[in-house]
Amino acid sequence: MLYCVMMDVNVPADMDPAELAKLREAEKNRAIEMQKSGKFIHLWRVAGRPANISIFDCESNDELHDLLSSLPMFPYFSIKVVPLAKHPSSIK
Amino acid sequence: MLYCVMMDVNVPADMDPAELAKLREAEKNRAIEMQKSGKFIHLWRVAGRPANISIFDCESNDELHDLLSSLPMFPYFSIKVVPLAKHPSSIK
Amino acid sequence: MLYCVMMDVNVPADMDPAELAKLREAEKNRAIEMQKSGKFIHLWRVAGRPANISIFDCESNDELHDLLSSLPMFPYFSIKVVPLAKHPSSIK
Amino acid sequence: MLYCVMMDVNVPADMDPAELAKLREAEKNRAIEMQKSGKFIHLWRVAGRPANISIFDCESNDELHDLLSSLPMFPYFSIKVVPLAKHPSSIK
Amino acid sequence: MLYCVMMDVNVPADMDPAELAKLREAEKNRAIEMQKSGKFIHLWRVAGRPANISIFDCESNDELHDLLSSLPMFPYFSIKVVPLAKHPSSIK
Amino acid sequence: MLYCVMMDVNVPADMDPAELAKLREAEKNRAIEMQKSGKFIHLWRVAGRPANISIFDCESNDELHDLLSSLPMFPYFSIKVVPLAKHPSSIK
Amino acid sequence: MLYCVMMDVNVPADMDPAELAKLREAEKNRAIEMQKSGKFIHLWRVAGRPANISIFDCESNDELHDLLSSLPMFPYFSIKVVPLAKHPSSIK
Amino acid sequence: MLYCVMMDVNVPADMDPAELAKLREAEKNRAIEMQKSGKFIHLWRVAGRPANISIFDCESNDELHDLLSSLPMFPYFSIKVVPLAKHPSSIK
Amino acid sequence: MLYCVMMDVNVPADMDPAELAKLREAEKNRAIEMQKSGKFIHLWRVAGRPANISIFDCESNDELHDLLSSLPMFPYFSIKVVPLAKHPSSIK
Amino acid sequence: MLYCVMMDVNVPADMDPAELAKLREAEKNRAIEMQKSGKFIHLWRVAGRPANISIFDCESNDELHDLLSSLPMFPYFSIKVVPLAKHPSSIK
C-alpha cells in the first residue's frame, strides 16, 4: 500500500557540525536499509529546499509509522503523509 | 528531469453529468497517452479526495507546462509543481 | 486499519431543496449501510458546522477511497484523511 | 459529551533524553489513568507524525480543560478541540 | 456551559433583495427567541464585517448544534465554535 | 465600547517554574484589578488550550492598548483584537 | 479614534458593466461624502489590486460599522479592521 | 524602479470559449505593447499553472497600477506586487 | 510615493531588559528623525499588539528599503510592504 | 531553463555580529561568482524585508539544488522555487 511522505528538515542553523554530520550519516544508512527492504521505494530531493518527497510501500499505517519514527532525524522532521490509492487512469 | 505534480480537481458539483463523463474520458485517454510516452511516470490517487499526486519526467519546465496544459481537465485543476533532484541517500 | 476522515459539506445555499433532500436521504442510507458493514465505525457531527469527523476501518487506502467516493454527496465534500496507527499509550 | 482533540507534540529536538523519557513515562501513566476513568475513550497515533487524535467524553468543557491541562506534556502540545454532537446518520 | 461562536455571513452579493430581507427577518426573530430563552447570552457585531461574535450557554454540544442549525441563515454561515471553560483569574 | 480580545499564551516549555509562577501571580492580580475596574468585563478560558477569549469595555483604542500592554505576561501573548459594535438582533 | 480598514473588492468578473458602473458611481459619491465629513481621513489604492487601505476617524466601533456598511459596494468587500492607538514614537 | 508582479489567472472553467479567446487576444496585444514600451521587462509562465511572474519597471506605484489595471484580463487576476530594490550582492 | 508598512515586533520575551530598553531608545530616536525628514509621515500603534502600521513617502523602493533597514530594531521586525497609489475616489 | 527563487533570510537577531559579517561576506562572494557564471541571472532585494527574489538559469533541477545548497547562508534560508516556462505573450 502506497503513501506519499513529504519531509521538511528543520535543523537549527547553529547545530554542532560534527553532531549533525554523525546524525546525517546514521540517517543515510537507515534510509538505504529501508530502501533495500522494499518499503521505501522512491526518495527524491525537493530542489532548493532541505526537504524530500518519498513514496513508501507498507502493509499498514502502523508499519509506516514505525519506519518513519525509526529515522534518526525524525525529531527534526515536519512530515505530511498522504495515503495513495490506484488511479483509474494509471497504466501500471 | 523529475517533477512532483499535485493536482486537485475542482469540478462544479452541479456540472452536467454527460459533459463531465465526456471530459473524464478525454482526460483518461490523454493521461494514458502521456504515460506511454514515458513523460508521465507515476500517477497515484489521493485516497479520499478528487486529487492525484503524479511524477513527470521532462526535458524542461516548458515541456512540463505543455504537457499539463494539454490535459482536457486543466481548467478544472489547482496544480502545485515541485521540481525534484537526486537525493544523496537514494539508492536509485 | 484506521483512518480519521474529516468531511466539510459545501452545499450551495441556493440548491433546490427537493433535490438536496433526496441527496441527503441517499447519503444517509449509504452511510448506514457502510456502518453496518463494519467499515465505518464512528460518525460524529461537528457541533455548529455542516461537517463531520469519522473513523473508518479499511483493508487498504484503495478500499477507503472506494467507500468515500461512493457517497452520494462526495462531490460536495472537502475531505481530509489522516491515517491512524496504534498509540503506545492506548489501553485498547 | 464528546470532543475530538488533536494534539501535536512539539518537543525541542535537543531536549535532554533522560528528562524527556521521564516526562513521556509520566504522560503515559496519566493517559492510561484517564482512559481507565472512561473520560478518554479513544487515543490514536497520527501515522508519521508526533501527534495524536483522541476522543474525550466529559461532563463539560471545564472538565475537558482540567483533564487536558493535567497532562504532564501539556506545555509541549498544540491542541485543537472540536466539540462533537450526535450525527443524524450515525447508527450508534 | 459556554461556547464562543464566530459567524461569518456569506450572502451572495447578487441575491434577490426581497428574499434576503425575508430571510434576515426570520433570522432576527429566531435570534431574539433564543436570547430570550437564555441560551444565547451575548450577540455582538464585528465592526466593519458581515459577521458576529456570540456566546451561547447550552447543556451540551448537541444542544448547541441544534440551536445553531435552526437559524434560518445557517446555510450562509461559516461558523467557528470555541468551547469555553472558567478562567482561574475570572472574578465571576 | 466593546472589544473581543483573543490571547494565546506562548510560554517557553522550559521556562524556570518559579519565575513563571511569580509571573502568573502578577498576571492574575492585574487581571482581577482590571475586572474590578469594569474595563475587563468577561474572561473565559479556551477549553484545552493555554488561551483565553476576553471582552473589554474601553473608552478608546488607546485605553485598550494601555490596559493590554500593562499585563505582566503581555510579552508572552499573541493577541487578536476584534472591535465590536451593537448587533441589530441583540436584545441587550 | 483611528482605524485602519483594508478593503478587498470582489466584483464577479462577469457582472453587468452598466450595473457595475452605476454601483461604482454611488460608491464614489458616498466615499467623497464621508471624506468631507472628516470621518474618512485617508483613502489609498493598493497598487496592482482592486483593493484599498483607508484610515477612519470615528467616535466608536459602532460609528465605524455604520459608515462602512453604508457603502454601496459593502456586499462586495472583504474587510479587515485594525484599531489604531497613538504610537509612543509618533511626533504627531 | 522594479516590481515583481505575480498574477494568477482565475478564468471560470465554463466561460464561453469564443469570448475567452477574444479576451486572451486583447490581453496578448496589450502585454506586447507594454513590453515594447520598456515598462514590462520580463514575463515568464509559471510551469503547470495558469499564472505568470513578471517584472515591471515603472516611475511610480501609480504608473504600475495604471498599467496593470489596463490589462483586459485584470478582473480575472489575483495579483501580488512585491516592490524590488537593488541587492548589495547584485553585479548589475 | 506612498507605501503602507506593517511591522510586527518579535522581541524574545526573555531578552535582557537593559539591552532592550537601549534598543528601543535608539529605535525611537531614529523613527523621530525619519518623521522629521518627511519620509515617515504616519506611525500608528496597532491596539493590543506589539506592532505598528506606518505610511512612508519615498522617492523609490530603494529609498524605502534603506530607511527601513536602518531602523535599529529591523532584525526583530516582520515587515509587510504594500505600495500605494492614488485612489480615484480620494479627495486629496 | 529558468527558475524564480524566493529566499527569506532568517538570521537569529542575537547572532554574533562578527560571525554574521563573515558569513555575509562569504555569501556575497559566492553569489557574485554564480552571477558571473551565468547561472544566477537576476538578484533583487525585496524592499523592506531581509529577502530576495532571484532568477536562475540552470540545466536541470539538480544543478539548481547544487547551486542553492552551496550558498553559505543556505541553512538560514526559507526558499520557494517556482519553475518558469516561456510565456506565449513574451516578446523575448
Automatic annotation (TrEMBL), chains A, B, C, D, E, F, G, H, I, J:
Record pathway: Aromatic compound metabolism; beta-ketoadipate pathway; 5-oxo-4,5-dihydro-2-furylacetate from catechol: step 3/3
Record keywords: Aromatic hydrocarbons catabolism, Isomerase
Gene3D superfamilies attached to this UniProt entry: Dimeric alpha+beta barrel (3.30.70.1060)
EC number: 5.3.3.4
Catalytic activity, as annotated: (S)-muconolactone = (4,5-dihydro-5-oxofuran-2-yl)-acetate
Presence of the UniProt keyword Isomerase in the record: yes
Superkingdom of origin: Bacteria
Primary enzyme class: isomerase
The UniProt record lists the keyword Nuclease: no
Domain Muconolactone isomerase: 1-89
InterPro entries, per the entry: Dimeric_a/b-barrel, MLI_dom, Muconolactone_d_Isoase
GO MF annotation terms: muconolactone delta-isomerase activity
Record-stated family: Belongs to the muconolactone Delta-isomerase family.
Subunit structure: Homodecamer.
Annotated protein name in UniProt: Muconolactone Delta-isomerase
Organism phylogeny: Bacteria, Pseudomonadati, Pseudomonadota, Betaproteobacteria, Burkholderiales
Gene field: catC2
